Amino acid sequence: MRKKLKPFWERAYKGHVLWLGKQKLGKVTLAGTDRYTWEAAGKAGGSTDLEKAKQAVELAVAMADKQLDLFD
User: Fold this and answer.
1) How confident is the model at residue 59 (pLDDT cuts 50, 70, 90)?
2) pLDDT per position as a tens digit, 2-34
3) What pTM value is reported for the model?
4) What is the secondary structure of the chain as a DSSP string?
C-alpha cells in the first residue's frame, strides 16, 4: 500500500515553495520590504502577509485540482 503524498512548504531564496513530492505546485516570493507575490496553478497575486500568500497558493492549487479540464 502506497502512502499518499502530502504537499509541504520549503523555504527558498527570498521566499517559499510548495512541493508535492518532486513536483513544484506554487511559490511565494518576497517582493520588497513587506510585500509578497505568489504564483500557483496559472494564477498570481500579492499580499502583505506571508501566511495569507501561502493560503492563496494552497487555495489556487486546491481549486485547480477540482476544476475539470476544458479540452480533455
Assistant:
1) very high
2) 788 899 999 999 999 999 999 999 999 999 988
3) 0.86
4) -PPPP--EEEEETTEEEEEETTEEEEEEEE-SSS-EEEEETTEEEEESSHHHHHHHHHHHHHHHHHSPPTT-
